[in-house]
């Protein structure tokens, strides 16, 4: 198994080498790539059959992995695993307009879905996970306060990560939403009591006025209750 990264990040490979209970080697090479005529890279090579078999049993496939890769089987550190994914194939920083962002580009449905679910648990924000039509890959993007929360969660103090990604993540904490910018939307969850009122009134207009919600929100919730897409209140 070989991991190749930019030579400027060779220190991270040395940390991996210290943590891995198998013999491994770190070498450097310079080669042309699609992005540069001369790319200086560092390679960490792990030849132990036992180590490679263990990784495969945990879910790391042999051969091409771009679409087949998925989170490990069994118990693992979700936060640290996802930080590694962002380190490898994601971006952290500021957009051209100066807004914080955390993004991931991946061809794997399992990884894109995993990030979407995990980020929702951390930030409360939902993202539609869908391949783009141009190159058939996923571009999962979080911005503003959502990006701040996710970056702070993944890149905690003294975590093992690319220094430049950790520095970028730390810098996001300095952003403050401008006074003229509309406040970030916070999803208001439906309660059982609100569902009872909605079913009793059986009117999106009357419910909106009593519950302090929009008529469209009440209309959609009533439809979901009637069609069984969400559970009825416990006493119904």
Overview of the structural elements:
With 236 residues, this protein is of the alpha+beta class. Helices cover 41% and strands 17% of the residues. The chain has a 3-stranded antiparallel sheet with strand order 1-3-2, with helices on one face. Strands 4-5-6 form a 3-stranded antiparallel sheet. Strand 4 and strand 5 form a beta hairpin.
What is the terminal-to-terminal distance? 57 Å
Mean pLDDT: 90
Judging from the principal axes of the Cα atoms, what is the shape?
A: elongated
Q: Supply Rg.
A: 23 Å
With strands numbered from the N-terminus, the spatial order across the biggest sheet is 1-3-2
What does this entry show, briefly?
With 236 residues, this protein is α+β, with helices and mostly antiparallel strands.
List the helices and strands and how they pair.
Layout: E1 2-6, H1 10-19, E2 24-31, E3 39-46, H2 49-57, H3 78-89, E4 90-94, E5 100-106, H4 109-123, E6 138-143, H5 144-154, H6 163-171, H7 192-201, H8 204-211, H9 215-226
Key words describing this protein structure:
three-stranded antiparallel β-sheet; 236 residues; 41% helix; 6 strands; alpha+beta
């Amino acid at each position: 198994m070989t991991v190749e990264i930019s030579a400027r990040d060779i220190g991270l490979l040395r940390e991996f080498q210290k943590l891995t209970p198998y013999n491994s080697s770190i070498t450097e090479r310079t080669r042309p790539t699609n992005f540069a005529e001369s790319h200086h890279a560092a390679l960490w090579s792990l030849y132990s059959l036992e180590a490679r078999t263990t990784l495969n049993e945990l879910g790391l496939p042999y051969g091409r992995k771009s679409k087949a890769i998925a989170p490990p089987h069994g118990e693992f550190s979700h936060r640290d695993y996802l930080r590694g994914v962002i380190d490898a194939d994601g971006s952290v920083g500021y957009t051209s307009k100066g807004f914080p962002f955390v993004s991931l580009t991946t061809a794997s449905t399992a990884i894109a879905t995993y990030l979407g679910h995990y980020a929702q648990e951390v930030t409360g924000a939902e993202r539609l996970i869908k391949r783009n039509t141009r190159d058939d890959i996923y571009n999962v993007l979080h911005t503003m306060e959502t990006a701040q929360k996710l970056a702070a969660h993944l890149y905690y103090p003294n975590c093992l990560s690319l220094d430049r990604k950790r520095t970028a993540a730390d810098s996001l904490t300095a952003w403050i939403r401008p006074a003229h910018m509309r406040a970030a939307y916070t999803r208001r969850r439906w309660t059982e009591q609100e569902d009872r009122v909605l079913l009793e009134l059986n009117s999106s207009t009357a419910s909106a006025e009593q519950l302090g919600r929009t008529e469209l929100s009440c209309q959609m919730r009533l439809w979901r209750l009637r069609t069984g897409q969400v559970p009825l209140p416990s006493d119904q």
